[in-house]
Give the backbone structure.
Amino acid sequence: MGKPYNNTKATLALAKASFRSIMRSPSAVVFTLAFPLIFILVFGFIGSGEIKVKLAVAPGSDLQNPVIQALEHNAMVSLVKDKDTADIRNGLEKGNIDALINVKKNDAGTPAYLANVEYTSASIDKGSILKSVLSNLLSTLNAKDVKPTVAELYESTVQGRVYRRIDFILPGQLGFSLLSTGVFGTAFVFFSLRQNLVIKRFFATPVKRSSIVFGECLARIGFALLGAIFIIVIGHFFFHFTLIHGVITVLNMLLLSIIGLIVFMGFGFVVSGIAKSESTIPPISNIITLPQFLLSGTFFSIEVFPSWLQPISRALPLTYLNDAMRKVAFEGAGLWDVKHQILIMVIWGIGIYAVAVKTFKWE
Amino acid sequence: MSTKNAIISVKNLVKKYDDFTAVQGISFEVYENEIFGLLGPNGAGKTTTLEIIETLREKTSGEILVDGYSVEKDANKIKRIIGVQLQAAGYYPNLNLVELMELFSGLYGVDIKPMEMLEKVNLQDKAKAKYKALSGGQKQRFSIATTLINAPKIIFLDEPTTGLDPQARRNLWDLIVSIRNNGTTVVITTHYMDEAEQLCDRVAFVERGEIIALDTPDNLIDKLVSSGFERKKEVKKANLEDVFINLTGKEWREDN
């Protein structure tokens, strides 16, 4: 017998074994790293999403006039000049072209030019942008050399941080990565360890049950954090993902990741307990992950959802993880500033582990 | 085998499941440093009995002492002095044999050199292989290696030779005998009577949850013969398995 039994040593041995096993498991690597990275690459290259109005110039329209020239220099408008009438009609109907302009010299004298603009119902949004661009532009042109009689407008823009698409997408993808690692990984591992009698063999050693659970969780957290760092580093250096306070921000994000992952692993424990066979794990896991993937603001803000859907979104734990991540990364919030989000995740955690304790099976 | 100290003592062991009784009042002792065989048909209660002694299952009633420790009070102390090979147990996925050995040394809380353990069962060449990639005989040898990690006083082997070819089986017998010769008590279950006859110092026959005979193989055979039993066919000096071994050779094979 000799020395007393060392629970920490057993836990660490398990964590090490589990970590090695995860690193060699293709599905874990694909779900945690490859999927989120692909989404980040796709959205990273889509760019910052500047709005451009495609304005066709009617064949035969006068080009040497101040209206067209001002439009040429407007960053929001791109002029399409080389299309014939049929192409333009077609484009307008499909919404490929947002509007048509035709400028003519006024034979009557004043005003010097007449501008005819035709919008399309296929592109109402951009039509109204063009409307305000044009009215702004024309009033400037018309007011040239004339002192305003009522008020003169001075406009300026505060130089703010550039909010890029990546600043929205990356935290969402990070959340998704943690969700799938937590749910799928945990469910599969505990189910297969139980099914293949690996756990039974463990029970023939002096190891405690808590060491088995804790060792597994430790390995998964370690793996997920490596994944998170990888995603953040790629996002920051290749796509200018904003990290307001640099390393501090990253550490805060990692702490949030741990909280989120622990909650998500709770779902995994429940799934491993209720799954009857290996093939029922993916559908059950998808029931948990897919709604959160779609409704928790992974790709777009939950504010764009219809009002009846928003309460559902606001009930999901991933919504709060994503929200907290974005606040921390882009707004530079500390963990105390997102205590509300953390609190809701903790409540989810308590609830799900209460269920997990009831449903989890060792044999 | 000459000393008669009981290292395991089982008294009136009963195990009831919801609707049937798997073990009904079994009593026996296993002596220190012997190879003890539990024999009997499938479902007779061998594995249940073994798993209760191994502290993996709760008993319904009865008293079991393993090296002086009681299974209900000192389960963890018992686990530290026994080695267990389960029927059809799996091992942690995606790990090679050395890594599995490291895992088990952590679980038992002992420091071992994985390669030395693998050498004991002649698997040093397979150190970097995954458990799943091993042949049947290699899997069983690896399982036995994991039972030796904590230098146990007793090891339990549940049908270690089921499904193996004659060479692999003989290999395993040699291994089991050498483990016993190093001072370890071995408790084994098997369906093969020739194996029990060759290997075991004493055997117990279990049938429907009860022990119906317990003695040395020799005494059991003598008793039967003295009762007037005779084999229908005249016994030859060799059997077909001897022919097989003679033709195919007894040495280790790469894939067994």
User: Anything to note?
Assistant: Residues 87 and 158 of chain B are 5 Å apart (CA to CA). Chain B touches chain A through 31 residues (CB under 8 Å). The longest strand of chain B covers residues 6-16. The mean pLDDT of chain B is 90.
